[in-house]
Amino acid sequence: MNSNSMVDVSPERGHGPASEGRRSMKILDWWAEKGRIRIRFPYDPMLLAEVKLIGGRQWHREDKFWSIPVASVGEAGRRLLPLGFEAAPEVEKLLNGEIEGIAGLTLASNQVNETSEVGGEGSTTDWSVSRLNHEVRAAIRHGFPGTLWLQGEVVGADRSLEKSGSSAHLFFRLVEKGESGPLAEVSAVMWSFRNDASFRRLEENGTPLEDGLKIRVRVSLDLYVDRGQYQVIVEEIDPDFTLGELARRREEILAEIRRLGIDRENLDLEMPPVPLRVGVVTSPGSDAWKDFIDELEVSGFAFEVSLHGARVQGDLAEQDLLRALEYFSRRFNDFDVVVVIRGGGSKTDLMAFDTLDLARAVALHPVKVVVGIGHHADRSVLDELAHSEKTPTAVGQYLVSKVEESWDAILDSAAAISDRAQGLIEGEQKRLRDDRNLLRLRSARSMAAADERRKSQGLRCHRQMTRAVRQEKVALLHRVSLWRSRTSACTQLESINRNGRIQRLQTAVKKKLADHREALANWRARMKAGSASRFERDWERHEMRQRRNQSADPKNILGRGFAWIKNSKGKTVRETEDVDSGDMIHIRLKDGSVDARVE
What we know:
The protein is α/β, with parallel strands linked by helices.
């Protein structure tokens, strides 16, 4: 408010004829309650300029007049009396030197009042409204001459004054509330609140004077004469009480939640490994929403985000927040996580999040809740009952990090599977090589053993035949020697029979030896054929296993002309319906990857 508007005391703004008469005058009178000289005049820029030159001047917005200290009355007389101002009797005496100081003014004022009671208006019992209000005001100030400390809740604070200059004044109401509602209230005003040290300290702690804030203030009682309105003038604010009250309220809510045994309910819920289905509770179009969604979009992951709009400050914020949490609670199977976010603000902005009903709704919510309400130094009740991040951006980064962890785990698992498969293939190949070498060794050993057995059997047959021949020869020689003594006919006949037996024996031995050799050759042939057939079957099985393992290798699949195609969201494209014209796709080939656009 500029200086011109501060002295807007034109007659049009008065109340009734008495008020108009008083305000049409240019007068200097004694203000006994404050011990100062009042300057009253209709608005005139020239007069206003003169008043502003007087030392110690002060504008009283509510009463719409100026005042000066007694020490400046001489300067005021020199400047204003020539401009048509009149001096009240007691002020005139002070200007003439008949009295001195405040004591003299007080005595002269009492004498003037006594004179006015005897004559003039004393002849009637009627009072004007202005006189009544002045008398009541004087009675209030006389009954409550000092200041007192008052507690109450702020209601109707004018937030539009936050951007005004240091000379602005703050008007609000102090309310005493009971369980069923307000019990009493009183109007309050804080003159030039921006210059007040206690107010600045409150703001420096992040707690501006806003509706719903409980404060302790030192006040003086007054009456707004023009309207007959009783009010208190705030002289000082107790910041420690307000900050302590906020902390006490927060602790009471947390204590009740702990008493119910639900303080760890949501905190102990396991965060889904891939939290892609996200429900968001915040104000649509706010910076908090933009910062959060930007983090998710930049990550490149396919997040599915559902926004439920809600006010995050003010009287209706709690209802909106509860409604949004209930919405996601009814659809808990459709979401992995619920995010409650808002931008930065003052400590009093946290009051919307410090309510028992909201705390209970978060603690018992069936979906994991993540809170990011934009405060680096202060924590709300919800920060104690759910996973907490400092800002909406930090919440987005947290969800992205959880998905990245799962994606890295998938990549690690795929690499481990590939390494395991490669190890199995290499192990199988080694086993087949070892089996082949073992078959060759066993075949060589079997053939050597068969040759050895054949030779051994041949030697045994030869020894048996030699021994038989020898024994038979000895027997024949013995018979011959016995038969020689017989007749020549018998000798001749025996000789013939002997030769026949020898021939038959030799023939039988040769035939038996040939049979043994043929059997040995057949056995050897069967051994070779069986070993070769078994080796071929084992080799074929080895080749089949090797081809199966090679066909399962992802690199060989890509090498046969196949490609792995993913859309811009990272999902695998299996059908033509998965992409539209103009979509970007990522194609992975045998020797690398390319990006392409669908035409």
